[in-house]
Design goal:
single chain; alpha+beta; PTE-AB_protein; 9 helices; 2 domains; HotDog_dom_sf; Thioesterase domain-containing protein; seven-stranded antiparallel β-sheet; about 25% strand; Thioestr_dom; Thiol Ester Dehydrase, Chain A
């Protein structure tokens, strides 16, 4: 028995010595690899794991290729959505008053290198999500008197797909907050000399559940500007038409009145207000909000 105990202790000491000799990548080298770009992330993870650790084979069912969206089908849906937007009475009115409202799709103006990392313009863009780049109409009013900043209002129209849900069948409330924040930032950009404002506070009141595969209108207005601070408020509504719908040569729905913002069945899903502040380091930031 005594000999067995000695042998057990000897084996335990040998195991501890061998595990202490397991090689890890130095912290400095990992940091250097990260600086060389995301393509080296696999190398970083390999060197961060002890060399003695065995690899585990990935189950075959996890290696199956994920289905990729049909590009032709996605483009067809985008054409349908564009056609629907052009038939919305509110959009027709905004386009007719082009002297008062400037139409833009600001996310498309962001350089591709930056846009791919932009949350709304890149990460949330695509089939089933924000399939169509949001439209925005901006109106800026000149200051009424010297020393006062100009205010502005924005109307944004966009479609929310079915892959941005929280509870099944309902759009994630966090997405609504993100879209409020995005449009509000565009709205207050006219109030600051740099065209840049950062969110200091955002309050969202959710009124009704938001549904996927619907067209939405978000209206925002800058209500007060004081130096480097600007207050903005707005609301978000969806049309009762469930999209996408079959597209014919003339119209996208049997009843065009359904595309009215105040149509029966239109639902205001949320209201919000926010405070934005022009950062002191705005000159060093890349401007993506000026329209």
């Amino acid at each position: 028995m005594y000999g067995l105990q000695r042998a057990t202790r000897r084996l335990l000491r040998q195991s501890m010595r061998s595990s202490s000799r397991a090689t890890f990548a130095p912290i400095g080298s990992i940091a250097q690899l990260h600086q060389q770009g995301p393509s080296r992330s696999a190398v970083v993870h390999e060197q961060a794991i002890p060399q003695s650790q065995t690899t585990v084979e990935t189950p075959s069912f996890l290696l199956q290729a994920q289905p990729q969206p049909d590009s032709a089908h996605a483009n067809n849906d985008m054409i349908k959505l564009d056609s629907i937007i052009s038939q919305i009475p509110l959009v027709q009115t905004l386009r007719a008053s082009h002297n008062s409202y400037k139409e833009s799709r600001p996310h498309l103006a962001i350089s591709p290198a930056i846009r791919q990392h932009h949350f709304v313009g890149g990460s949330l863009a695509g089939p089933g999500k924000l399939a169509l780049t949001p439209y925005m109409w901006t109106s800026s009013q000149k200051a009424e008197s010297k020393g006062k900043a100009k205010t502005s209002s924005v109307v944004s129209v966009f479609h929310i797909g079915r892959d941005l849900c929280g509870h099944p069948g309902f759009v994630h409330g966090g997405l609504l907050s993100v879209l409020f924040d995005e449009v509000f930032a565009r709205c207050v950009s006219a109030a600051f000399p740099s065209g840049l404002g950062m969110t200091a506070n955002l309050n969202v009141d959710f009124r009704k559940p938001a549904l996927p595969d619907h067209m939405y209108v978000l209206q925002a207005e800058t209500v007060k500007v004081d130096g480097r601070k600007a207050w903005v408020q707005g609301c978000m509504t969806y049309f009762p038409v469930h999209l996408p719908v079959p597209l014919d040569a003339k119209k996208v729905s049997p009843d065009q009145s359904l595309l009215r913002e105040d149509a029966e069945g239109a639902v205001m899903v949320a209201e919000a207000k926010a405070l934005f502040v022009e950062p002191k380091f705005a000159d060093s930031m890349v401007s993506v909000y000026r329209t």
